[in-house]
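Hi there,

I know you've been waiting on this one. I reran it after we fixed the sequence typo, so this is the corrected version. Both the input and the resulting structure follow.
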Amino acid sequence: MTTLLSRTYWNYIWQPLIIFAFLAIILNVFLFTEHVSDIAWAVGTGSLASSAYLVFAKPSTVSARPLCLIVSYVLAITCGLVTHYLGDLLLLTHDQLFWMSFLAAFSATITLLFMVWMNVEHPPAIGMALVCVIDLRDYHTLIIVLGAVTVLVILKLALSRWLRDLY
């Protein structure tokens, strides 16, 4: 009984520390990347922070499965890019906020539907669909996010034997 309690207590220390380290590194990567806009920085790191929470605080949830993380982010980025280029095709400028917000909502909805259809729900990834539509300046943000998701998946797989739900 004592071993189980101390093991669980230890999880309340090291799992949040991994979240802290992961987010500190990702935030600094975004900070030192010149091409990233404020919206991409805020939403991208917010999505990754939510994903880190699921992976390290609730690792037994379906949304924390490695396949869900990878496929959901790829789906969100793909749907966001397709919608972004659809907006460009329709000659919408970023000054037309009403239509941009409509396309962003459309992109998030399509992403959600694909996630449900493919049974790979990971809600934090939807934020990347919004970033791609609203304020995609270049592909650096997408590369950083996909790299961070890959790191999350590797950490999840490497530590899965010791990870416990924190509540």
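Quick highlight: The CA atoms of residues 22 and 151 lie 9 Å apart.

Best,
R. S.
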